[in-house]
Design goal:
heterodimer; A: 351 residues; alpha+beta; 2 domains; six-stranded mixed beta sheet; five-stranded antiparallel beta sheet; 8 helices; 33% strand; B: 285 residues; mainly alpha; MetI-like fold; 13 helices; 0% strand; globular; ABC-type transporter activity (chain A); transport (chain A); Mo/tungstate-bd_C_term_dom (chain A); P-loop_NTPase (chain A)
Chain lengths: 351, 285
């Protein structure tokens, strides 16, 4: 199988487990994002792929070849660290040329490659600048140029944008993604920022509680979270307990019932959890409850200008609905309201 | 001197009111006590009298003249000329500096990067020469060297000086090492450098200031060392401090003051160079 394959990979320090039982296939040329809260083992997993951390269990294969125990410097993977780890005693040009120097590339060819890369990151005039004299975004670009200088088989990015301010981070996300697609280089990005993952990734690997929770495209992960952990971690969602009543009906804690066809196979009486995304809820002026339209009371309104978030108490459940200002019907705290929960927007979560 | 003063009060904002005046006064007294011997020596070197009365009755450059004569046309009565002592001192100081650095750099790397059994004990042992009585150390080394089946001359001074300088060099290198994150080293490895190459290309250059500080300190310590050297020197191998001492015990010759001023000047030049090379706050003595 081409690409990178991880089989039963795990790492533990003594009795403490960092990450366990990871099985992944990363296809060539894709950008894969390891997404998870801090301490979930995503950086450890990346460091094992890099060769900076030894494997406790399992195997890592690249294009069919076992590389699990190859030392880091023989893997030819590019890596951008969280601190960027540029060499402060070298200029921009020397930093980028360093991997080429190690490979015995001639001075002329080094020069040519450095010029090419500086053009790619649009810092041509910075070649003799010490790295300390660069701005955060420029340093970021130099770190990427250095990582790809020796044409690595794999590019590893360990939360490389976390030191940048929000605005710069957003533009760098797009820049890195475009660069990755242009070079068609298999890339792994570690992040805890789901927006970053959604912007950049072809495939998202959600990690949590030391294991892989779900693998899928960003939209799959958002639309069909595999479990409560993923649903809770990705996006904001209304997750609430309910009881299956049989033949596709579910009861809310306050007694109201919803028609949710995907619950048809669930045995009557079983306790389940439902997920509804805030943007799927529809608010309207109070009307007779019918079907999935339930009466509720507004408990909070957060109007941030671009969007309006309305929190509603509805049959013993607190729901948050997201609407644009033009959809807004001018609600304030205490107002009665009708909430429509479209059946197609409901997801049933396993614990 | 102003550099030294500045470095003494580095980062200290003046304290307000009474406390401030008291602190300033106290610092003044301490500083005066510290420079008093050097001032006395400088004054004495310009003495015009032929005895060692302080303050001198008159002033002249006669002892500098005498010192110069001793240097260019060595007295036949001297066991060893100053020129030879000076050459020995330079040789011993240079070798001690090099060996201490060659030991200290890998030691500092290991102490900062690696976890090993007995690390705490190793750290303690490193600083043992700082608290060990010099006389005992000198005597112990003498016993060891004399029990060897072969004769060591210059090298036994080098060995002794390396032992004395090592804590200072290790401390400076360790301080420099602590400021280097492990990510730059890992970055070098990811770019294709073997672990050793990563250290040579990235870690050592970043430790540069600490290594330089350690080297110069080692040189100064070796160049000035007296007590331990006193146990280990012999007729053929003598350093400048021993030579000067031998001059004072036999005849109380004030030329030593002019030599001493010269040596202090050399030390100042080295310390100045140290501060220039390493910059503020880089040296831990």
């Amino acid at each position: 199988m081409s690409g990178l394959v991880l089989e039963n990979v795990g790492k533990h320090y003594g009795s403490a487990c960092a990450v366990t039982d990871v099985n992944l296939h990363l296809p060539e040329g894709k950008l894969v994002c390891f997404l998870g809260p801090s301490g979930c083992g995503k950086t450890t997993l990346l460091r094992m792929i890099a060769g900076l951390e030894t494997l406790s269990d399992g195997e890592i294969r690249l294009d069919g070849q076992d590389i699990g125990h190859t030392p880091a410097h023989q893997r030819n993977f590019g890596m951008v660290f969280q601190s960027l780890a540029l060499f402060p005693h070298m200029t921009v040009g020397e930093n980028i040329a360093y991997p080429l120097r190690l490979r015995g590339v001639s001075k002329v060819d080094q020069q040519a490659r450095v010029t090419e890369l500086l053009q790619l990151i649009q810092l041509q005039e910075m070649v003799d600048r010490p790295v300390a004299k660069l701005s955060g975004g420029q340093r970021q670009r130099v770190a990427i140029a250095r990582a790809i200088a020796a044409r690595p088989k794999l590019l590893l990015l360990d939360e490389p944008l976390s030191a940048l301010d929000a605005k710069l981070r957003e533009s760098m996300q797009i820049e890195i993604r475009q660069l990755q697609q242009r070079l068609n280089i298999t890339t792994i990005l570690v992040t805890h920022d789901q927006r970053e993952a959604m912007t950049m990734a072809d495939i998202v690997v959600v990690l949590g509680e030391h294991r892989v929770q779900q693998v899928g495209t960003p939209i799959e992960i958002y639309r069909n979270p595999a479990n409560a952990f993923v649903a809770d971690f990705i996006g904001s969602g209304n997750i609430f307990p309910a009881t299956a009543l049989g033949s596709g009906r579910v009861g809310l804690p306050g007694g109201a019932a919803l028609q949710v066809p995907i619950c048809e196979s669930i045995q009557a009486g079983a306790s389940i959890k439902l997920l509804v995304r805030p943007e799927d809820l529809q608010l309207s002026l109070p009307q007779a409850s019918a079907g999935n339209c339930l009466p509720g009371t507004v408990t909070f309104v957060r109007d941030s200008g671009a969007t309006v978030e309305t929190t509603i108490e509805c049959s013993g459940v607190s729901l948050t609905a997201l609407s644009t200002p033009c959809q807004s019907i001018g609600l304030s705290i205490g107002n009665p309201v009708s909430v429509t929960i479209p059946a197609a927007a409901c997801r049933v979560l396993t614990a | 001197m102003s550099n030294l003063l500045k470095s003494l009060f580095r980062g200290a904002a003046p304290l307000p009111g009474e406390t401030g005046r008291f602190a300033m006064g106290l610092s003044g007294v301490i500083l005066l006590l510290a420079v008093l011997p050097i001032l006395t020596m400088i004054v004495m070197s310009f003495s015009g009298a032929s005895n060692l009365d302080f303050p001198p009755a008159s002033y002249s450059l006669q002892w500098y003249q005498a010192a110069w004569n001793t240097f260019v046309s060595p007295d036949a009565s001297d066991v060893l000329s100053l020129g030879q002592a000076f050459t020995t001192s330079l040789l011993v100081a240079t070798l001690s500096m090099l060996f201490a650095t060659l030991i200290a750099v890998p030691a500092a790397y290991a102490l900062v990067r690696c976890e090993f059994r007995g690390k705490a004990a190793a750290l303690q042992l490193m600083s043992l020469p700082l608290v060990f009585p010099m006389v005992v150390l000198g005597l112990a080394l003498l016993l060891i060297f004399d029990s060897l089946p072969f004769q060591l001359n210059t090298s036994r001074l080098v060995i002794a000086h390396v032992i004395l300088a090592l804590p200072f060099v290790v401390r400076n290198c360790t301080a420099a090492m602590l400021s280097i994150g492990s990510e730059v080293e890992e970055a070098a490895k990811m770019l294709g450098a073997s672990p050793l190459r990563a250290i040579v290309d990235v870690v050592v250059p970043l430790m540069r200031s600490g290594i330089l500080a350690g080297m110069l300190l080692a040189f100064i310590i070796s160049f000035n060392e007296f007590t331990v050297t006193y146990f280990l020197y012999n007729i053929d191998v003598m350093t400048v401090p021993i030579w000067m001492y031998s001059r004072t015990v036999s005849s109380l010759d004030p030329t030593v003051f002019s030599f001493a001023v010269l040596i202090v000047l050399i030390d100042f030049a080295l310390i100045w160079a140290l501060e220039k090379l390493v910059g503020e706050g880089g040296v831990s003595f």
